[in-house]
Amino acid sequence: MSTPAATPPRPVDREALRRRYRQERDKRLRADGPKQYLEPTGRFASLVEDPYTPRTERAPVSRDVTVAFIGGGFSGLCAGAKLKQAGIDDLLIIEGGGDFGGVWYWNRYPGAMCDTAAMVYLPLLEETGTVPSRKYVFAPEIHAHAKRIAEVFDLYPNALFSTKVERLEWDEAASRWLIRTDRGDLIRARFVGMGTGPLHRPKLPGIPGIELFKGHSFHTSRWDYRYTGGTPAGAPMEKLKDKRVGIVGTGATSVQCIPPLARDSRELYVFQRTPSSIDVRNNHEIDASWFEGLEAGWQRKWLVNFAQLQSGGFAPEDLVQDGWTELARRIRDRVVAYAGNQPARPGSDIYVRAYEDSDDEKMEEIRARVDAIVADRETAEHLKPWYRQLCKRPCFHDEYLQAYNIEGTHLVDTDGKGVERIDETGVWVAGRHYPLDCLIFASGFQFGADLGRRCGFETYGRDGRMLGAYWADGMRTLHGMHVHGFPNLFITSIMQGAGLLSNITHNLSESAETMTAVIRHALDIGAREVEASEAAQEAWVGQFDGNVRSMLGDADCTPGYYNNEGAPAGQRERLNGARYPAGAVAFFEFIDRWRRSGDFEGLAFGKIEPAAARAPKRLDVPAK
Ligand code: NDP
To answer: DSSP character for 5?
Structure first.
């Protein structure tokens, strides 16, 4: 379906716009903030079971390994690939799902795709000889790429699937981590990597009566194709043709699955609390002959270029050219115009003015696009986002707004209040009952939750210190990865590191390099332990004091997981959301120098073994 041209935006009345933004935010502020959501435990536990791989019984595993990695998503895959390249084969990847893929194993909802360009989002493209089919690829292709990485680097023999870690405990006497799982396994690992991801555990909306619904229901990350029919590859969900389907939520997930739901359901009711901003997608196929012509090392160049433009920096060209970099381009052009080529750093007055003007202009365009596409005036009004673009995850789609023109698709706007209640037969909004056969929760993930709660297990370091308790007042790390008191542990966290939200996998592949370099060094010098010094960690954490998480200022934003649901951000939230003050590219450059220096400043290597007992020296094992 083609996109009609949007009406040119009117000049912006800044004051009126800000007033409207504040009104819309205030409507949505709730006293229970992030506590409004329910965990999928107890009576909701079935909502997070694995619908894709049947559980088969197996004998418990008891094993010693050099490296155990928790999580088989892109984090574990990048780590596995790098470790193998560095000659560290004695590796075990423990994964709750039935295969590799992480979020792309779980999220198989119809229409699922990645709205970061495949050229930068898919890791290890050159190493695996992969040509993405399109600029933005669909979930099945991403999952296939994850499996390809595992095959190319021979990681399947190193995997323990359908296995959930229940406890991670440091054994001081043996200088090893003890890992216990829900299968009764006991793994003793010299080093442990953790790639449990920020979007790992689904959450449910805390709507009164949610437990009463007697129709069929599921969370988008556990799509029930047995009920809906169809396939993740896009075959029609023929079993919905006589069904009244409701979906709660209009975030990035919903935006992608609503078009196929609108196409296939008898009636579709979309229960909206806050509309997403929907910019153009403009997807297109990748020309294989153009791709063939790229020089070796192209992916690193593209990654740096994208990160540069995303970090408020300047780059002579925009290789990716998408909605993420467009905002950066607009800001850059304005900064140049306002400053007359004088340097203007992110955060300077000129930069902030350029940012505000660009943002207002973009949001006016986005609202004008709604008017240009959606036929029903009232529906169009409700679909307009009234906040600054980066307050919420920006979305890009060329069929979402159009779906509201399909007969049988109904937007039920809740005026910021959310669904009133749920009963046995359906959903109530503003005193009206909507009878439903199926209710789908597109209510997101426990992004801001404590690491322990998110990954479903606790970690006990030296002297039995619990990581969750140690971080009760916020994360304390060196580089987002190492934690004092938790030796030989490597946490893949985007926070307190680059914090590059627009391209999560870039953070992950850098973390894999760092973890591999440190482990390789520890093995080479025979160090049984490596740990962040308290002084280095505190110096690192100290730089986040007063460093606001986003340049928007959280207080002005409509609530969501980007801003702690609008609840005031204290020290804990500030530290949990902290990013390297000088930006992602500066962090990547810093960490590259740190790795290459070989000094690993801030880490202490201890309990050095006699040379005879050491692991073999580095073997450069090329990818197959
Ligand atoms: P989100 O957390 O973004 O959205 C949850 C939705 O549920 C929101 O619209 C929220 O409204 C709504 N909601 C919550 N409670 C209620 C209620 N009581 N009544 C009505 N509505 C309610 O989850 P998503 O799964 O959409 O996205 C999560 C993240 O996953 C994204 O931000 C993105 O990072 C990632 N993602 C990435 C994609 C990609 O292309 N790379 C694609 C899809 C997801 P409100 O906004 O008012 O809180």
So the answer is: P
Question: SS3 of 286, please?
Answer: coil
- The token pair at 161 is 């699937």
* Residue of 135, 199, 253, 382 to test ligand 1 pocket, by largest number of atoms within 8 Å of CB: 253
Give the closest residue (by CA) to ligand 1 atom 18: 418
C-beta of 248 in contact with ligand 1 (< 6 A): yes
Q: Is 207 in the pocket of ligand 1 (CB under 6 A)?
A: yes
Q: Among the atoms of ligand 1, which is closest to the Cα of residue 419?
A: 19
User: Same topology for domains 62-201+447-613 and 204-276+395-441, yes or no?
Assistant: yes
Largest distance between two CA atoms of the chain = 77
Count of Cβ atoms closer than 10 Å to residue 569 Cβ: 17
Ligand 1 mean position, distance from CA 407 (Å): 25
Q: Which mean pLDDT values do the consecutive 10-residue runs of the chain (624 residues) have?
A: 45 87 93 86 84 94 98 98 98 97 97 97 97 98 98 98 97 98 98 88 93 95 97 97 98 98 98 97 96 97 93 84 86 85 74 88 96 98 95 94 98 97 98 98 82 80 96 94 98 92 95 98 97 98 71 69 80 86 93 96 95 56 38
Tell the CATH superfamily of the 62-201+447-613 domain.
FAD/NAD(P)-binding domain (3.50.50.60)
- Report the distance separating Cα 375 and Cα 331, nearest Å: 32
Residue 391 Cα, ligand 1 centroid: separation in angstroms? 13
- CATH code of domain 204-276+395-441: 3.50.50.60
| Cα–Cα distance, 402 to 513 (Å, whole number) | 43
For ligand 1, pick from 393, 427, 503, 557 the residue to mutate: most ligand atoms within 8 Å of CB: 393
Task: Give the CB-side neighbour count of residue 407, counting CA atoms within 13 A.
Answer: 1
Give CA 3 to chain center in angstroms.
29
Closest atom, ligand 1, to C-alpha of 559: 48
Which ligand 1 atom sits closest to the C-alpha of 441? 7
CA of 443 to the centre of ligand 1 (A): 5
Domain ranges of the chain: 1-11+281-298+314-391, 62-201+447-613, 204-276+395-441
Contacts of 407 (CB under 8 A, 6+ apart): none
